[in-house]
Fold this sequence. Notes:
Radius of gyration: 18 Å
Order of helices and strands: EEEEEHEHHHEHHE
Structural class: alpha/beta
Distance between the termini: 34 Å
Strand content: 15-25%
Shape: globular
Strand order of the largest sheet: 5-4-2-1-6-3-7-8
Number of strands: 8
Number of helices: 6
Amino acid sequence: MYVYRSLPGLGFIRLLRLRPASRGDADIQCQLFDYQLLQNGFEGTDLYEALSYVWGSTSNRRSIFIDQCEVKVTSNLHAVLLHLRHPFFERVLWVDALCINQNNVDEKEKQVGAMAMTYAKAACVIVWLGEATEGSNQAMEDIRLASAEHLSGSFLDEIRREAIVTVLQIPWFECMWVCNQSKLDVSFGYR
Length: 191
């Protein structure tokens, strides 16, 4: 069982090093470390990526390892960590379910209160909508084109409109997180 240490003070968060693995079926290995956010307000970015996703069902939890200790996570978080894991390079991520001690009410309140800053300081915010489904990648492209005013509603056929509606019904869109859109990297289970 992983045991969290207290954060050193205000302005500190934990970050997760996602260790590389050349085999897709290798265990997910991670390390948590304390990190002090740059103290220049919302200006500038730090060298980590923040993950925005829906935790998903707590049934069917999967194992990952943090500092060689087994930790159970939701299958949705397990899937995104597998997707983000690089074969040769580690990634530094902020993942709320792991970087915040969920059993420490005081820490949780402070860290949740600082989430806007945590997301704002990230070099990139990765949005995980879940595993790809039929039509989801095309629906995302259609949404992108429509937002850039390249498509009109009359151009989209019924099947593509239904695919867009399906994507927009993903639970992530019910979340209240506000992110700097220039930093978003929205993806499904494959790119």
